Known about the structure:
5 strands; single chain
Amino acid sequence: MSTTKEKVAIYARVSPGGDATERLEKQLNALVKYCYESGYDPDGSFIYTDIATAAGRGIEGRLGFTSLIEDTEEKKFKTILVWGLDRLARSAESRGHLIHAVKKYRLKIVDASTATFFSYRKMLPLSFALAFTMDKKRARRRAHHEQR
């Protein structure tokens, strides 16, 4: 008896920079490898990417993220796989869209970099994790600017 592997949404985003395409490929390769190791179906999964966009500025210009949210409404997948929550949502607007979709469509988010799972049943930990990720980024940026 064969079992069908779960199709997932794979989301990768890189910040602006000279080697953005290379960094995006590294993220995607790591996520596909995680799929194989964890029993997901990378070949039948949905891949969304955003290159050279700033996640902290909302969802404008993030076509991959926007498509991901739209496809949750069509129930194409039940799991979103990312390499770090900060790649997925930083701004209040993107966090709001994400949390709404997770709750409404009973999704699971997997941060493959830490093997941490968040589900619609654990919205408070997801909200805190997204906010904590953003606070860490802000603190690092602030410290960098103070050193100048």
